[in-house]
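REQUEST FORM: STRUCTURE PREDICTION
Request ID: SP-0412
Submitted by: Lab K.M.
Chain count: 1
Length (residues): 295
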Amino acid sequence: MTAEQLQKMHSGQGFIAALDQSGGSTPKALALYGVKETAWKNEEEMMDLVHQMRSRIITNKEFNGDRILGAILFKATMERKVEGLPTAQYLWEKKHVVPFLKIDNGLADEIDGVRLMKPMPTLDTLLSEGETYGIFGTKERSVINKANADGIRKVVDQQFEVALKVISHHMVPIIEPEVTISIADKKEAEVILKQELIAHAKKLSPEQKVMFKLSLPAVDGFYDELNKLPCCVRVVALSGGYSQKEANVILARNHGMIASFSRALAEDLTAQMTDAEFTKKLGASIKAIYEASIK
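STATUS: Completed
RESULT:
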């Protein structure tokens, strides 16, 4: 983490590109990209294919630090190269885009209306590796499926426990307790979640920096209070299953949030596109998400 990167993430205009599909979500991401499961024989070949997809996005002229503040990578992407450079190094040195790393191992089964993160026994090793590669921050995702106070408290407890470990490795954690957008009590779940997030964040010093990645709220501007916390670098929004167009409309009404979209960013991009078609579509997506993020 450098002071320049921290300043860009705190005050820059733009959004975060989430390029962090892992082993479980990669087949779906490739399918949407037009690559069938018959195209690979094992996980290594699958990750090579998704790295080709990510590289095509990252190296495109439309993908740069003028409108994109950061990019979230999966471990296999961090360990691979783009145009001869480690991906994180390429992002910062060539594109002026701040690199993040997804560190969770996926979700545990649902208990108390939530899905906690699975155990991370090798987390310290992964964080040390991230430091070596020049990673600025991390992302760790939990899911909330019900307005259950006990469950949500456990989610936030776990998120901050991991966040403190990330901070000890001189990186900025993105705390991501995703509220499922389709649940009937989403608004109630967000009330409980915000209370827990604020209570935990107030225990941090101003030097212990964190970010929050949250579902677009039921009430516009609902998470504005988080931006006022001394420890908060930025509040970002996940698309959560909304189409890019839907997500952009809601995001534009939430002036304290910027986008951190994954599927919505890569929407309608395919391997079969010519370079000109790919550039046009990617450029249009980046422009639309950027404009929604800066309103």
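NOTES: The chain has one domain: 3-293.
Reviewed by: T.R.
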